[in-house]
Prior knowledge:
Oligomer: single chain
Distance between the termini: 24 Å
Structural class: mainly alpha
Number of strands: 0
Number of helices: 6
Amino acid sequence: MLVATLVWLYRRRYPVYRRLRDTMLVSGAMALVVFTFYPVAPPRLLPAGYLDSVAAHSSSLLAQPPVVLNEYAALPSLHVTWLLLAGVALFQATRRLVLRSLSVLSPTLMSIAVVLTANHYVVDVIAGVAVVVVSLLIVRSAAAGRDRALPPTIGVVSR
Length: 159
């Protein structure tokens, strides 16, 4: 859903795409800071016997390539963060009921899935939502400041 939303927004609603892109970059930077200074292992790494059912029943290295996988990057859940950001952008960009329903359903199902597969705790999901709120506020504030700094233009249309 994330890639499809990015492509669709880029082609059809570029200003919304730009906000989504910027917000994803801000949220990713925020998550990297947390991953660096407060590494948290997911429940599947506990000795209590939680099982990552996706990894246990999949032989694909595409989903979790060992080269880029950080086992201690569970808080916040970027799975939820980025799908929620895409959902917000998609909801803003369309009036179609099907797409709006998908924009709500996708992050909701991802939140459930990452907890049930022992990839994240509920608090990781909540932290992901908090990162969404903060990053949206940061991007919105930066855009407002940028718009105030631009000289007025007449008849100029930009992407």
